[in-house]
Design brief:
Layout (H helix, E strand, L loop, with lengths): L1 E5 L5 E7 L5 E6 L10 H4 L7 E6 L16 H14 L5 E6 L1 H12 L5 E7 L9 H13 L1 H12 L6 H12 L3 H13 L13 E6 L7 H10 L3 E6 L6 H4 L1 H10 L1
Parallel strand pairs: 3-4, 3-5, 5-6, 6-7, 7-8
Antiparallel strand pairs: 1-2, 2-4
Helix pairs in contact: 2-3, 4-5, 4-7, 5-6
Length: about 260
């Protein structure tokens, strides 16, 4: 079921809460510039195995409110804390993909893992996000031809073949975001680093990373593995930046085992 949660800055976040009666809870944080729908291929499998799957659209994306500001990792992490408090969640697994992985890392370090017992980082945009060159190219496209930018994102996202209908669906997901929030996150990915957060992660961490990832190189997954205590890295040999779809059976199995 879907509903809105008001976070402490007055912004309403959209939440897709699948199987609220499940006995194990996973919070899913999507990547830029997508929304909770990217995890469709988890939501149609994991609830049947007893999981409560909570998909959150960050501010500025999907169905959530789209204010002009608040697109720092601190603010986005604070939004998630408000959600955890409001829904009275505890002992949850926090899963973040790409930029969602960066937000998840900041959440665990900034809020001392409040309510979270396990962390899953999927092709995480950490400890660094975009290079200055990549960010500036994306910014130029966002401000002049956002559909073309989204097509470029889609074209470089997957290692495995995707159909035209899938590509169209993926593109439309990204275009549901506001242009200003899309641009603001590019700046955050360019300017904010997460090196100091990594030693503060104090929960078991599963790192999933596609070895063919063109967006966030596999080497960054290896770096996270070295710098996060009690972490394990699982390479996805047939995935680019979309392991959650490209090797979904393996992905879902790993989640349940973890």
């Amino acid at each position: 079921m879907g509903y809105f949660v008001t976070v402490d800055s007055g912004v309403n976040l959209y939440v897709e809460d699948v199987n609220p009666g499940g006995n194990k809870t996973i919070i899913f944080l999507h990547g830029w510039p997508l929304n909770h729908k990217q995890f469709e291929y988890q939501f149609n499998v994991l609830p049947a195995k007893g999981y409560r799957c909570i998909g959150v659209d960050w501010r500025g994306f999907g169905k959530s409110d789209k204010p002009m500001g608040g697109y720092t990792f601190d603010r986005l992490a604070d939004d998630i804390r408000s959600l955890v408090v409001t829904l009275q969640l505890n002992n949850v697994t926090l899963l973040g993909h790409s930029t969602g992985g960066a937000i998840a890392i900041r959440y665990v370090s900034r809020h001392n893992s409040f309510g979270v017992s396990k962390l899953v980082l999927v092709d995480a945009a950490a400890p660094t996000g975009f290079t200055t060159e990549t960010a500036n190219n994306f910014l130029k496209e966002v401000l002049n031809d956002r559909p073309k930018m989204m097509q470029d994102v889609t074209d470089g996202f997957f290692f495995q073949y995707i159909t035209k209908p899938f590509s169209d669906w993926f593109m439309q997901m990204g275009l549901q975001a506001a242009s200003w929030s899309t641009a603001a996150i590019i700046v955050t990915l360019r300017d904010e680093k997460l090196y100091e957060d990594l030693p503060k992660i104090n929960v078991p961490t599963l790192i999933i990373h596609g070895i063919h990832d063109k967006v966030i190189p596999f080497e960054q997954g290896q770096e996270l593995n070295k710098k996060i205590t009690n972490s394990q890295l699982v390479p996805f040999h047939y995935s680019g930046h979309g392991a959650f779809w490209e090797e979904r059976d393996k992905f879902n199995r790993l989640l349940t085992e973890f």
